Amino acid sequence: MATFTHQDVLTAGLTHWRDLAQGLHARFGTGDFAAGLRFVEAVGQAAEEAGHHPDVTLTYPHVDIALISHDVGAITERDIDLARQISAIATEHDIPAQPEALAQVELALDTADPSRLGPFWAALLRGDTEAFQDGDVVGDARVPLLWFQETDAHETPRQRFHLDVWIPAELAQERIAAAVAAGGTVVDDEAAPAFTVLADAEGNRACVCTTER
Fold first, then answer.
1. Residues of the chain with CATH 3.10.180.10
2. pTM as predicted
């Protein structure tokens, strides 16, 4: 099954949706719980008819929806088609999209031996060592994905955990500027726009990531 790149997603013209670390994401501002519930019911019916089911989070002021083809671990035509249907439903319900509010957080841990640490973190975060798959502790609605950044073995104390904050590509520079204005510094932007390393005032690091290359 063909998978979609970041450029493919842009070409598809999904104005309500952004591709982040794992699939397509959208937030719809429902304003109240009842409107959100009606919207989710309509999305659920469309998903059943399509035989393809998104992850949906209903809260008081908004609904978050994520789409990915889990069988290939990527965005496919099924996701693009259902995203368009969901956007049409939102328009019918007079519910605006809020792409400027989107973000996805992943945890990253530096280690020279992911296979030794992975089962521990899977058991701790997910309650099951089977959640350690293909070098990651897979996330769910409760916890973010944890991936292991392989490094050389070292004994010197250093920061081992950092956050990857995935932002829609067009908002990355604005987010970086806001973090710098709030006391942070840019440590490394050589790989931008794919990722930019920031640090807080005490040197704790995080990456602002996008799917743009």
1. 104-209
2. 0.92
